[in-house]
Amino acid sequence: MRIVRYDHAGHVRSGVLIGDAVHERSGGPIVAALREVTLLAPCDPRVVVCAGKNYGEPDGTGRPKLFLKAVNAVTGPGSAVRFPPDLRRLEYEGELAVVIGRTAHEVPERSYRDYILGYTCANDITADDWRADGQWVRAKSTDAFCPLGPWIETDVDDPAALHIRTTVNGRLVQDSPTKDMIFGVGELLAYVTRWITLQPGDVLLTGSPAGVGPLSPGDVVDVDIEGIGTLTNSIV
Amino acid sequence: MRIVRYDHAGHVRSGVLIGDAVHERSGGPIVAALREVTLLAPCDPRVVVCAGKNYGEPDGTGRPKLFLKAVNAVTGPGSAVRFPPDLRRLEYEGELAVVIGRTAHEVPERSYRDYILGYTCANDITADDWRADGQWVRAKSTDAFCPLGPWIETDVDDPAALHIRTTVNGRLVQDSPTKDMIFGVGELLAYVTRWITLQPGDVLLTGSPAGVGPLSPGDVVDVDIEGIGTLTNSIV
């Protein structure tokens, strides 16, 4: 099932997408055609917690590297991300995003599926120069630096059996299976919820594979995850 | 005016405290006596952005040092903060907290007051060992690491004319005027909102003065700010 959040004639609602029709709920009446609504980020998280460096060589600590994105950064599919003034290098990072379905505290790794509503695509937009601040607040949480979407796909049996492809202006720049994550979704959720209680709608970003690179104003970035969909955003 | 958020017989509401009476609103009817309600964090932020190292010697960068606290950490006056297992050193940090009153984007420093609802006390609880993670997610955002309260005081003319006193089990450990901040409230709000749009109810922590130190289970910490009130929490 594809869960969407959308603006239709000025009203923000959630619904279910079947083909090109937005339904009020699963089995419910059609509200509008997909082309008649503006899709928004498919959830409205209060916490967005992210794993850094979760593909490639492990760093030897045996622990995920976590950081936060503040929710002012959350934006939807199709939206424009402003290239900040006074910045040299802005980067895309295509990622699998986990959307929490029920209160998650000290989740046992083996039962992680019980706490997940579904999965969506994320672009962990990063102002590379500003990592030098130490804590990555400007670097990761500037307005619109967290596009999510286009919808939440609830029918994902195994989040390690997906494939992420990111393109910039149609050129393939990231192309990796999610089985290459160092810490899988279950391990990440168990780790994070030892300290941080997540609530329904909260989001866990699972890290970006090889191929991260720069963006310029005018670029269009697609983050496509097999079996989920494609998140498209432009840089302005 | 003192704005409170409280639980009364299982219902969470906001109101105004006058003497020992909780009113529905300013000039409105009395709902309950203060002793009949449980005070909660006086606002329900979506973003909590914090200035680190904002008292003492400037670091020479000319910029505030920012970090985030995730909102799972927000808790109210009177609540207990759990000393995490596997941690050696937990610290209190008494701070002045700014509560945003209207959407704040690219706020001019001189007009910062227009964007502020009022002020409250914060305890920026920190797991010192876990700063070594790099990004301070566990160190700063573990559940209940952000006590706020006891209420929002809206009648503060000059946030640089206040005085912070923190006690642990009645022993004075922090005792500083807010005029000693390196970056004042107006500078901080102007800086943060160049990148991060804050919404009503969001919170800006302004840094902790000298005297930060360790906590043990059983300790009771008071953060008292002249003209605002006292935030009391226990460590368990």
Automatic annotation (TrEMBL), chains A, B:
Residues 62-236 form the Fumarylacetoacetase-like C-terminal domain. It holds the Pfam family Rv2993c-like_N. Residues 1-42 form the Rv2993c-like N-terminal domain. Keywords: Hydrolase, Metal-binding. GO terms for molecular function: hydrolase activity. Its EC number is 3.7.-.-. This is Fumarylacetoacetate hydrolase family protein. It comes from Nonomuraea insulae.
